[in-house]
Write a structure and sequence with these properties.
The protein is an alpha+beta fold. The chain has one domain: Endonuclease, Chain A (3-Layer(aba) Sandwich). It is built from four helices and four strands. A four-stranded mixed β-sheet has the order 1-2-3-4, with helices on both faces.
Length: about 130
């Protein structure tokens, strides 16, 4: 697990590329916000989390499988991850920030990511 990165992952880089191409400007990993969002759009008060399907338990996704070995350990770890995510989203909402989650499996479709970002920012699709 020491090789699992929390920043600059491939899904995160794909979302950044789409956001930048759409003309959206953002900050990365703002530690002063709950949960340290992957991308932050300060102008729109929007925090974006790019979650891995496996680690953050994307409901209904085939990538959110349970390892066969040490299932109790993994179940506990995944429950803590999900609880931490839920707490971060709640704290952001309490601070008047909007937040969205873009799942790893969604990042393969650049058009879908673009639509999600533009809809969340309230921007026109002509950007």
């Amino acid at each position: 697990m020491s090789r699992v990165r929390s920043r600059d992952t491939q899904p995160e880089l794909r979302v950044r590329k789409v956001a930048h191409a759409a003309g959206l400007r953002f900050r990365l990993h703002r530690r002063d916000l709950p949960g340290t969002p992957d991308l932050v759009f300060p102008k729109h008060k929007l925090a974006v989390f790019v979650h891995g399907c496996f680690w953050h338990r994307h409901p209904g996704c085939k990538r959110a499988s349970m390892p066969a070995a040490r299932q109790e350990f993994w179940r506990d770890k995944f429950e803590k991850n999900v609880a931490r995510d839920r707490a971060a989203l709640k704290a952001l909402a309490a601070s008047a920030w909007s937040s969205i989650i873009i799942w790893e499996c969604q990042t393969n479709d650049a058009d879908a990511v673009r639509r999600i970002l533009l809809d969340s920012c309230g921007c026109s699709p002509n950007l």
